[in-house]
Amino acid sequence: MTLKRVREWEKLERLHARFANHLHFTMHCKHHNVTPVSIKVKTSIKGEAAKKVIHRTQLALLNIRISEIMYKIKTFKSLIADVNEELFTTLPADVYTEVHNWVSHAHRAEWEKCQQRQRKKFDLLRVRQQTTDNNKKAPITAVSDTMIENTKSKWVINKSDKGLSTHELSVLRKGLNYAITPQKLPIMEFITALEKACKFIGPDTEEAAHLRSDCVHLLKHRKMPPSNITKEERLALDDLRKDSSIIILPADKGRATVIMNKSEYQDKCSDLLNDSTTYCRLKKDPTNNYSDKLTKILRPLKDQELITYEQYRTLYPTSTEPPKFYGLPKVHKPDCPLRPIVATRGSIMYQTARFVANILAPMVGKTQHHLKNSGELVERMSQVTLDDDESLVSFDVSALFTSVPVEESIVIIRDRLTCDSSLNERTKLSPLQVTELLRLCLTTTYFKYEGKFYSQVEGAAMGSPVSPIVANLFMEWFESRALTTFPNPPKVWVRYVDDVGAVLKSSLIEPFHHHLNSIHPNIKFTKELEENRSLPMLDVLMTRKDDGRLKFSVFRKPTHTDQYLLFDSHQPMEHKMGVIRTLRHRADHLITEVDDKNTEYDHLKTVLSIAGYTRWAWQSPGRTKLIPHPRSSTDSRPKGHVTLPYVAGVTEAITRKIRNTGVAVHSTPCTTIRRLLVAPKDKTEPEDTCGVVYHLTCEDCEAQYVGETERALRKRISEHKRESSPVAQHMQTYKHQPGKKVTILDRESRWFERGVKEAVHIRSRSPSLNRDQGRHRLPPIYNSLVQSRDLGDL
């Protein structure tokens, strides 16, 4: 009984601490004229009179809350006094003192925890309230119209014969990452994310039921935000998308949007592929052959329990879509050549390449020459002092990925794996088994372009997850050999993938450059020397001072356009604040001189003002930290992660509901200009598409069927001819013909999400040939949302 009273005392002290903090927070809000979210009053009535009524009401509600909190605090104090008096008379003096100290500590701990949370909450409320202040809507700094036009003129590069209209130019200048406000609510994506969240918290729990109920209510009573582009700009987007004479691409570097004649783009791609030293034309599609090879390797690994069944399912090649080739224009070079890219996502080897990459990744960077990022470059080079007879020089490997020798790299990696004592912590596979998978990844570098199939003769494909790691590990071997075989190696040699910074005797630059190019026939370096005592590397400009030490500032290549995500893009505010945090973090951590830092800040204020960023966003308190605080314990890890489509006012509300269940939430734009206009890769025919929800219709009646498949759609459709299929049974019973047209309702590569979408479409269409409601059991609470078939932009 005494222990129970002690626990009750502790609980009361914690409650007292929380409500005392709550009182302090509420009084602080009243003093600073800040309204807590929970008592905000909303109305559709506009005008100053309505604003005054709302202000008076909110102030009255705030006063009522203060009174309620004070009453609760008074009650807690009375209860604490009673327990305290009881325990003082029943416990020995030494035990009472110990208990008193313990509950006092609990009170202080709860007070400090609540205080920290309430401070952050108050800061955020102040920031949000400031956004409504007209003064705070001003740009960060005043910028002239001439400077705005000069900057924006670099954002679009028209190399086509097409003349751009005012509206076409306006919408292209928004940038390919610009998110357009959706015209319809993407109900399908919200339901899919909600069901994923319920999966993490327990789909049949009371908590999941409450979450579904709350979120469905929010979705039914949503209000769509106004469009962030004009009607004319929307029509211009449609015109650009339908124009088959041009192709729209991001520049290889610098964020510019490039428009090219499609015929010129195709000619440049053909020129690249006709290089027989790099590419070879194949007679037929090798996908099935490579799929069989991968399966023969994976099955024994699964049978021997060297990989788990889940890993086997992930790696097993169900997709038959080949990798696809495209090019990005190098606008900074004469004649605008293309950088070849092979898109491997969704191909048969993609997951295996990711699997192997995760095994090999921890081996990268074990040398003293490896650089993780620009910050490490500054840290390393700031310790260097150059003598008068020494120079800064940078070396760059020409076309590293396509130059990496595959067989030699495999041998190097196998030897590294053999010596890696921590390999068994990452996988049960032996070094030989890992390299067998790696060899398959590196020797199946094929792709499709314009309906034809090609193979890469040598090197690693740009676009494969394992390619950067293979290139890095080969370069670690290469630099070790190069540095140990030169009589007077550089004083400093630091490398970020194919970009090297070095300090060596000025008289040895040419001999050392020649030496580098003699190590391996595939690997050739270009060099760049100091200019005006400065040398750029990555995004850092290193400048030699009079005492031989270096100062550092931000470097921007001539191709840099100063284009950042526009502030009116329909994306979460956190994404936009992230742009500011990233740029300020770079300025704070890379620049070493005060004058250079001030210059950089002035530049950032100017270019961000041009992008529409406001003064309050730049000055927001508590928003400059780039790295979040580490989690205090494993208990605070989220139960899972879900991604919501972003619709202003709707996504924020649903995010709060889901986060309250312990599931982490991320947001993604519904539609970007890139998604609408950029399509350089070969289109996949509908029947060859993998990972879809599809719709079949009988040619002779209204009978319908909705299904889903991970494999190519043509394979799944052929299975409907089997006698056990409800579609085949319908055709045989009524002597009907199957519909020739199969409609793809949704594309979804993820297994769980595809099952949810199938269930939603079945619920929406009520197809007569389906025997059940799909493999995912969709709760009836969604009926009011899905039965209208208005599922948003699918």
What is the helix tally? 28
Q: For the largest beta sheet, what order do the strands appear in spatially?
A: 11-12-8-13
Number of strands: 22
**What is the overall silhouette?**
globular
Biggest β-sheet description: 4 strands, antiparallel
Task: Quickly name the level 1 CATH class of one domain.
Answer: Alpha Beta
Helix percentage: 40-55%
Low-confidence stretches: 621-634
Let me know the average pLDDT: 91
Structural category is alpha+beta
CATH architecture of one domain: Alpha-Beta Complex
Named CATH topology of one domain: RNA-directed RNA polymerase lambda-3
Q: What Rg is obtained from the alpha carbons, in whole angstroms?
A: 32 Å
What is the H level of CATH, i.e. the homologous superfamily of one domain? RNA-directed RNA polymerase lambda-3
Distance linking N and C termini = 62 Å
Please indicate the percent range of residues in DSSP E strands (runs of 2 or more).
Answer: 15-25%
Provide keyphrases for this structure.
794 residues; globular; RNA-directed RNA polymerase lambda-3; three-stranded mixed beta sheet; alpha+beta; 28 helices; 22 strands
Concise description?
The protein is α+β, with helices and mostly antiparallel strands and 794 residues long. The chain is built from 28 helices and 22 strands. The protein starts with a helix and ends in an 8-residue tail after the last helix.
